[in-house]
Amino acid sequence: MPDSKVTINEVARAAGVTNGTVDRVLHNRGEVSAKTKAKVLQVIKDLGYKPNVYASMLARNKSRRIAVLLPSFHKGEFWELVQRGIDQSSEYAGRFSVAISEYYYDQYDIDSFKAQCREILASGPSGVIVAPMFLEGTRQFACQLVDAGIPYIILNTTVDVNSHLAYFGLPMYESGYCCADMLMSGSEPELRKLVFLVKIARDRNRLSDPSAERRKGFLDYLSKYYPDTEVRNVVIDPNNPAEISRILETAFSGVSGRLNIVTLNSRIFLVADYLESKGLQGMNVVGFDMLEKNMNALKNGYVRLLVCQHSDRQALQAVVTLTDFLVIGKKPDAQNNFMSIDLLTRFNCEYY
Question: Inter-axis angle of helices 8-15 and 34-47, to 10 degrees?
Fold first, then answer.
C-alpha cells in the first residue's frame, strides 16, 4: 500500500539517484535525462510519494505580501470585527512567508480611498483584499489590479466585477430580502402600512453606498408582498450624535402604535439609544451585525432581531484563500463564497 509519509530520501534511494535529482524532476527544472526522469516518476507513483508543496516553497525562500484595504474605524464598530479576523490570519500566512500589510481609508472620503489604492499599486503587492464602500471606485481599482496581474479578493460587500479571485460575505441582495421578510413578519397586519428605513449620511457626493444591493433586495420584497407599504427614509449622521435624537423624534412624531424601524447597516444601536432614552421598548426594530452595542440593545428589548454574519471568519478565510493561491496556486472551490444569513433574537444571541 502506498505510504503517504514517504520521504524524498526514500524516493531517491529507491530510484538510485540523489535528492537533488528528485527535486529537479518534481519541479521540472535542470538537466535530467528522459530515462532517469521516467524512473523517478515511476518510483514516486509506486511509493505513493506526495511532495510537501508548502515546504518546497519555503525552502526556496520566496516571500510574498498581501495588501488589505479596509475602512478606518473606531473601537466597537463593524470593521473592528473584520480586523480581528485579519489579525487571526497573520499566523497562518506567516507560516508560508506571506506578510500582511494593512491600509485604511476614510469611508466618507473618495479621495482617501483612491489615495490608498494608488499607494497599494505602487508598493507592488502579491495579492490584495479589499473591503469596498465606494463601489465605482472599487471597480476602477479592480481593473487596475487586473492590468497589473495582481489577484484580489472582495470582502463583505459585493461589487459588479467578475475578475476577482473570490468574494467572502453575505449575499447582499438576499440579505435585504430576508431582512424585509423578518421585519414584516414581526409586525401586526394593521401596522404594516408604514416602515421607517434609517440610513447613514455618508460622503457629500453620495459615492459611498455599500448597502445599495441590500436595499434593492429589501425594497423588491416590499414591492412584491406589501405594495401599499410606505417606506419613509430617515437619514442620520453617526458623526453628529446631537442631531440624531432631533431627527428621529421629528420622523416618528405623530405616528402611534408599534413602529416598524430598520437599518440595512450595522448602526441600529443609534436608533436603539434614542428609543431607550424615550422608554420606547418593544418596537419592531430590525438591524444588522453583532456589534456589542447592537447585542445589548437586542437583549434589552430595543431591537427585536439582528441579521448577523461572522465577519471575522470571513476575513480569516479571505487571507487563507489568498495565501494558498499565492503559495501553491490553489484556487478556491467557488468564486463567490456566500456566508449564511444568521438571525439573532434575545433568546439565542448568547450562543452565537
Answer: 130
pLDDT digits (tens, 9 = 90+) for 128-164: 999 999 999 999 999 999 999 999 999 999 999 999 9
pLDDT for residue 2: 40
The closest of 241, 247, 311, 243 to 269, measured between CA atoms, is: 241
User: Residue 99 pairs with which residues in a beta bridge?
Assistant: 65
Distance CA 317, CA 176 (A): 23
Give residues with Cβ within 8 angstroms of 51, minimum separation 6. 8, 26
How far apart, in whole angstroms, are the C-alpha atoms of residue 337 and residue 155? Answer: 10
Q: Return d(Cα 10, Cα 7) in angstroms, integer.
A: 5
Beta bridge partners of 66: 100, 127
pTM of the model: 0.82
Write down the pLDDT at residue 207. 78
The sheet carrying 194-200 orders its strands as 230-236, 194-200, 260-263, 284-288, 305-308, 342-344
Q: What is the rounded radius of gyration, in angstroms, for the C-alpha atoms of the chain?
A: 26
Q: Kindly give the residue spans of alpha helices, DSSP state H, lying in the chain.
A: 8-15, 19-27, 34-47, 53-59, 78-95, 110-123, 135-147, 172-185, 212-225, 241-252, 268-277, 292-299, 311-328
Give the confidence band of 6 by pLDDT, cuts at 50, 70, 90. Answer: confident
| CA–CA distances in Å: residue 25 to residues 7, 32, 108, 127, 188 | 15, 7, 54, 29, 72
Residue type at position 274 = Y
Q: What does the alpha-carbon distance between residue 125 and residue 141 come to, in Å, rounded to a whole number?
A: 14
Segment 207-222, tens digit of pLDDT? 788 999 999 999 999 9
β-bridge pairing 305-308 and 342-344: antiparallel
